[in-house]
Amino acid sequence: MYLQIKDVSKTFGTFTALSGVDLSIEKNEFVSLLGPSGSGKSTLLRLIAGLEQPTTGQVLIDGQDVTALPPYQRGIAMVFQDFLLFPHMTVRENLLFPLRMLRMNRDDAEERIDWCCRILSLTALKDRFPNQLSGGQQQRVALGRGLVCRPKVLLLDEPLANLDRELRRDMEIEIRSYQIQLGIPFVYVTHNQEEALSMSDKIAVVNKGGIEDFAEKSAVYDRPKTRFIAQFVGRSNVFTGPVEAATEGKAIQWHGQRIALGQALNDSNASSASAYIKIEDTLIEAANANPSGKIAGTLRDVIFRGQYAEYLVTVDGGQEVVASSIDSATRVKPGDPVLLSWDTAKLDVFPDEVAA
Ligand code: ATP
């Protein structure tokens, strides 16, 4: 493993910001730390960078214990959300600055700047000042200031948060391509699941100072390991209620509806549970389809999201369910009676209470 966090904890006074964090990242991996505000993502990144000291635990880079080393001796670089470029310096001078701090000789520094500009497509912009650059170009220079030192690890703390949506999407693709070219680990902090899902190999889901899961992004998305992940990643309908057992398998009683659980909870004696189904796995049909095993309701509204639409359905009992899977031949409009269904194998089920 190239970057290892071993049983790291961090307290600020009496507040525990991180506890018992383990993370092992390989040399060519792009890892996102994904979690809500205040969960401890930035603190973890700052501990890797050496901007904070862990209360307990170790940080290893390339086999070396760097826990006691200051940031500039760790061979890491960090890119922040507020990428502060020096306004009175050209792109070239902005990139030269970190190399001067390393006391690199002039010829090597120029060579390094040329290399960095080639990778980041900045060669034609080398003599411009920051105010003569677009937002995306400025962001590339900020990345360049991290990469020009040829770090062993690049740490990025919400670097795209201030960019507009379209530019963000372009930059996501660019940042991922730089990581592949350079073959070093990128550790990317974000609370934006789309960013984490589009760029990463793996996602570490951070919640309340701990890592709830660290896995391939598809596993995090398709098979959430915890209830928190099921709520936080993707968009799901949630059915919470008492569990009833029947010969055909267990089910949740949800506002007068029976949510069949298939094989889920077979080994559990939970008396109540929550089942999550992603909205893209929730199928809506016109009410003239075969109703068996489906949930009946009334289409309340359709929200167009560009590439897909969300169908807001009020089911019998008054609850709302969102569906975004529909057969292309189906025509439904608000007010129409509809049916909802899904593949029970796609439900993520978490027990709430275990019967005594
Ligand atoms: P955000 O997405 O909002 O940046 P985050 O997940 O990065 O959130 P952190 O910045 O790591 O969260 O903060 C985790 C917790 O630790 C927060 O409750 C924060 O208030 C607290 N914290 C961070 N730094 C300090 C500090 N220097 N002193 C005291 N508390 C701190």
Automatic annotation (TrEMBL):
Belongs to the ABC transporter superfamily. It comes from the Bacteria. GO terms for molecular function: ABC-type transporter activity; ATP binding; ATP hydrolysis activity. Keywords: ATP-binding, Nucleotide-binding, Transport. Gene3D superfamilies: P-loop containing nucleotide triphosphate hydrolases. Pfam families: ABC_tran, TOBE_2. This is Polyamine-transporting ATPase. Residues 3-233 form the ABC transporter domain. PANTHER family: SPERMIDINE/PUTRESCINE IMPORT ATP-BINDING PROTEIN POTA (PTHR42781), SPERMIDINE_PUTRESCINE IMPORT ATP-BINDING PROTEIN POTA (PTHR42781:SF4). GO terms for cellular component: ATP-binding cassette (ABC) transporter complex. It comes from Salipiger pallidus.
